[in-house]
Amino acid sequence: MLIARNVSIEVGARELLRDVSFSLQSGDKIGLVGHNGAGKTTLIRTLAGELREASGEIVVSGKLGYLSQEAALSEIEDRQITALERILMARDIGSLERRMESVRRDMEDADDEERDKLIHRYARLDDEFGAAGGYVAKAEATRFAAALGVAGEDLEQPVATMSGGQRRRVELARILFGETDTLLLDEPTNHLDLDAKMWLMDFLSRYAGGLLVISHDLALLDKSITSVLATEGGTLDAFRGNYSFYLSERETRRTQRLRERKHQDAKIARLEEGIRRFKGSSEKLAKRARSWETRVDKLKATRTEIAASRRNVAVRFPQPETTGRTPIKADGLGKAYGDNLVFLDVEVDIDRGERMIIVGLNGAGKTTLLRILAGVETTDLGEVTYGLRASVGYYAQEHEQIHAGTSVIDHMRAVSGAPDRELRSVLGHFLLADKVDQDAGTLSGGEKTKLALAQVVMGQHNLLLLDEPTNNLDPQSKEALLDALTQYVGTLILVSHDTDFVEQLVPDRAILMPDGDTVWFEEELLEMVALT
Fold first, then answer.
1. How far apart are CA 86 and CA 332, in angstroms?
2. DSSP labels for 81-105?
């Protein structure tokens, strides 16, 4: 159970949410919705205890599971912990198994006397592991992981060497495996393939605890939730029903509020007209006019609030300088992390103005290839060559270019020497004008995406490498990005699991990972995009 009473949340000097009250009981399945920057992620982080509320009270009883938008795992001290061990940690079993494995390794090099002691120690740990349900839980954890796309050798891979998408799936498996009473999930479908999304929807529909979920995956919201909390203008509005009902009811409520406001404004206008007519008349009429002034003040103070129409994101990539015929070429690329071979002998050859998408199953090396092409990661084999006048703009799915402790405007200054007036104007197009002096580390996931895209825009690059650019974007922002890329005349290499976005972008060719084969993009490949 979770209860929020009169909670207000501030970011810097700005009040993000005020006097928020609601409860999350067992069986409640609530979707938290609102545009990017409305405070959804900040609220859920506050509920999870990562941030402090400015005022009010948050009460949590039972075990709480929280999935962050971020895939970073800085809290893990042991960077060698495997995916399966990480998942088992949710039930305090992973540490036991690690100790058992450590004792087993020690036995290999111990003398007879020491080995006997270690055998007894291992037996005690094994009994403890079994009593805690470890062997049954291990099989269950393996099933959870497999359902979310982490199976086989991936389970024995150190989490620290995994891609961002793989880490997210491991974390989601860990949290769902944790036998929680309350789940707080922030964009849980990011990096999931179609089968994993279907499994997750089914799991959440059967989940007996309380669920609060942020997601731009409308199918998830429609099938898995029973009510909606909408953030707008610093407040929360509650709606019973799924997301489709919320959209309809929101418009009904807005129409009703507009009607009420129109009636109130008309009444105020009539009273103010009477005040103007009688204020300078006889004492009797002037006294009445003064009483009307009091009524007008009260009416204005209690007028129905109408949220201002929200501005839309406006993305436009400046038309860049023309490159040579082949802006980037890669020969014989190979990459491995320890014993884990990601890919071998991959070729990339793209013509000026082409749109190319990299597709493949999770863990096939899509992000790794893009990072090598961008020059932010080295290749173990092969070579990357940039063409004449090629200028690379790279968008990283993990927002690696966004640094906590640095303001939004300073992030823009770092990539462009343009005057602040122009930088602020671009930030305004991305709806970040009121956050120019804010610490970029406190932005929501969607706002970080917008800032990173704004940085790419200011670079005026003629070769864009974009890794999951639609993650965390609301529908309108995603549409604006699609329109901008459609009009962009430079060269584009893209990694994306968003089938609708990819279908409308219409790539020219595709690189199939991990083999690295390049083929013409056909509609049938959208099925593979959905599985990435």
1. 34
2. -BHHHHHHGGGT-HHHHHHHHHHHH
Nearest 5°: CA angle at 136, between 135 and 138? 65
* pTM score: 0.68
For the chain, what are the domain ranges?
328-530
**Please, are residues 184 and 69 in contact by the beta-carbon 8 Å criterion?**
no
Task: Compute CA 30 distance to the chain's CA centroid, rounded to the nearest angstrom.
Answer: 18
pLDDT digits (tens, 9 = 90+) for 379-433: 999 999 999 999 999 998 878 888 888 999 999 999 888 899 888 888 888 888 8
Note the Cα 516 to chain centre separation in Å. Answer: 28
Structure tokens at 115: 């080995």
Tell which phi-psi region holds residue 516, choosing left (phi > 0), alpha (psi between -120 and 50) or beta: left
Helix axes 243-278, 283-301, angle to 10 degrees: 160
| Structure confidence by residue, pLDDT tens digits, 43-97 | 998 999 888 888 889 999 899 999 988 755 555 556 678 888 888 888 767 667 7
CA dist., res. 299 & res. 444, Å (int): 37
Phi–psi pair at 295, nearest 5 degrees: -60, -40
Longest pairwise C-alpha distance within the chain: 114
CA 461 from centroid of its chain's CA atoms: 25
Which pair of structure tokens corresponds to residue 110? 């111990």
Report whether 65 contacts 180 (CB < 8 A).
Answer: yes
Class for the domain spanning 328-530: alpha beta
